[in-house]
Write a structure and sequence with these properties.
Helix content is about 75%, strand content about 5%. With about 550 residues, it is an alpha+beta fold. It has three domains: about 150 residues, no CATH class; about 160 residues, EIF_2_alpha (Alpha-Beta Plaits, 2-Layer Sandwich), CATH 3.30.70.1130; about 180 residues. Strand 2 and strand 3 form a beta hairpin.
């Protein structure tokens, strides 16, 4: 198998050498055609401007930026703004684009469409974070100077538009927060007013007043018990006074009759009897007991004084004096009874008033859970709105600081790292692809012709062909014999072959230099060493 493969390779090499001109001529023609296209195809130059996305210079721990748009989205937004018709018309007028006679009949829409196709924005992502660290703005065109100017202008537009977009977004965010803050402030004031009116309306029924209401209720209950006890005591005293008054009235009539018969006063005995009755029910500190004791002492003191003045007069007027004293005592009892009656009325009024107060405070205590629930709902709304207000207020302050930071250009910015430079080599046509295509076309065309002719040639060329077709073993082969003239032609053929191979390598080398240095520098170099007007010839051929 290895022997067969080696034999096939040797055969094809021998075939290539035999038909070498079918390789040399197409290869040289392909090199010439490739260089021709490299000369005549329109040159497209590209200028790039590298823009760095520089983070904000104020630490984010102190000032947070409110421009939260993703950098890729912001670049795309700015790109759309720059590629707008208005902006592109301004660039065309500023740089005097499409001003030649070839573009005199060109519509503005066509000019704008042509520029849009030539502008490209490529974002470079950083390996350290998810955002973009830099992006490049490129522009393509046939004039290197114009390409450079347009690329730099586009880069400046990107920087200016970024500042405008960031500042507008910051101001818009601040304005939105300001509107929301005013709205929430109005709502907060309304809830505060509702809360104040609710507290004012239900004063005394609020949850924080429950302990006070319970203490007041206990105190009122004690007062009610005390007043009710005093009322009962006053009623008992009134009843006793009524009984005493009735008894005194009866005893007064009987005492007057007895005094006229015996001449002895009965008033002291009656008073002592009343005192004994009172002591049976009350203590010595009771007001009625004290009052009767004082009356008895006054009565006895009055009787003793009369004895010192005149015994006869006392004896004669004792009955009249006793009756007068008894009438005075009855009058005092009636006054006491009236005073006690007034005390009862006052106590009844106080009891009724205290009872009303107790009912009121009981009602307050009973409705306190309802007021607590309603007040809790109002306080919850108030706390939520106040929390929103405080949050918006903090954000508004941060937004104002961020707006100030953006106005002073301390936030995230675009900075040009590499300005667009005058391009030296065109990016189109791609000479690398062109030379590879030319080499492949030349060798492919020559190799194809060689194999095609070999395929069409049905003569016997090798001993194996004889053995395979005729079935006769080959014992020996006789080499081709040349005459002297044939020998000279063979040598000349090899000389021409070497010259052709040399030309092919020279063309390949020139094409390679064009790929490395560019078309115009290579032409200048060749023209310098050969003094041939190559550019003029190529320009005439292209015409």
């Amino acid at each position: 198998m290895e022997k067969s493969d080696t034999f096939q390779i040797d055969y094809y090499l021998e075939l290539a050498v035999k038909r070498r001109w079918l390789l040399i001529i197409p290869f040289c023609i392909a090199m010439l055609v490739g260089m021709y296209f490299a000369f005549v195809l329109p040159k497209i130059y590209q200028a790039n401007t590298l823009i760095l996305v520089r983070p904000q210079r104020v630490p984010t721990d102190y000032v947070r930026s409110i421009v939260s748009t993703d950098i890729d989205q912001r670049i795309n937004t700015i790109r759309q703004q720059i590629l707008s018709r208005t902006n592109l018309e301004r660039i065309i007028e500023k740089l005097n684009l499409f001003s030649g006679p070839d573009h005199a009949d060109m519509f503005m829409e066509d000019k704008i469409g042509s520029i849009r196709k030539r502008i490209d924005v490529e974002v470079t992502r950083s390996s350290r974070r998810s955002g973009a660290d830099a992006f490049s703005v490129s522009y393509r065109g046939s004039d290197p100077q114009t390409v450079m100017n347009v690329a730099n202008t586009l880069a400046n537009f990107f920087i200016d538009e970024n500042l405008k977009v960031r500042e507008a977004q910051a101001i818009g965010t601040s304005g939105f927060l300001d509107d929301q803050l005013n709205s929430v402030r109005t709502r907060l004031e309304e809830v505060e007013k509702q809360l104040g009116e609710y507290r004012k309306k239900y004063m005394g029924e609020l949850p924080e007043q429950l302990d006070t209401n319970l203490r007041v209720l206990d105190r009122l209950q004690l007062q009610l018990n005390e007043r009710q006890a005093n009322l009962q005591e006053a009623k008992n005293r009134l009843l006793l006074l009524d009984q005493q008054i009735e008894a005194n009235k009866n005893s007064q009539a009987a005492g007057v009759a007895a005094a006229s018969d015996t001449g002895q006063p009965l008033t002291v005995a009656q008073l002592k009897q009343q005192l004994a009755d009172l002591k049976a029910n009350y203590t010595d500190r009771h007001p009625d007991v004290i009052r009767l004791k004082r009356q008895i002492q006054d009565f006895e003191g009055g009787a003793t004084a009369n004895e010192y003045n005149s015994g006869a007069a006392e004896q004669a007027g004792s009955g009249s004096s006793a009756l007068l004293t008894q009438n005075r005592f009855l009058s005092d009892q009636i006054q006491q009874r009236n005073a006690t009656y007034l005390d009862i009325k006052n106590l009844e009024s106080e009891v009724a008033n205290i009872t009303r107060q107790i009912k009121e405070y009981q009602r307050r205590v009973e409705v306190t859970p309802q007021r607590e629930e309603e007040l809790l709902s109002l306080n919850r709304d108030y706390d939520n709105i106040k929390g929103s207000y405080n949050s918006l207020l903090n954000r508004k302050l941060e937004a104002d600081i961020a707006v100030n930071m953006e106005k002073k250009q301390k936030g995230e910015q675009f900075r040009i790292v590499d300005h667009a430079r005058l391009p030296q080599k065109p990016v189109s046509p791609d000479l690398k692809k062109l030379i590879l295509l030319a080499v492949a076309a030349g060798l492919g065309l020559g190799g194809g012709l060689i194999f095609l002719l070999d395929y069409l040639d049905t003569s016997l060329k090798r001993p194996d062909d004889i053995e395979a077709d005729l079935g006769i073993p080959v014992l020996a082969t006789i080499p081709r014999l040349y005459q002297p003239t044939g020998q000279m032609l063979k040598k000349l053929n090899w000389v021409l072959t070497g010259f052709g191979v040399l030309i092919g390598f020279i063309l390949l080398a020139v094409f390679g230099i064009m790929v490395l240095n560019g078309v115009n520098p290579t032409l200048e170099l060749v023209q310098q060493y050969t003094n041939l007007p190559i550019q003029k010839v190529i320009s005439k051929i292209s015409l």
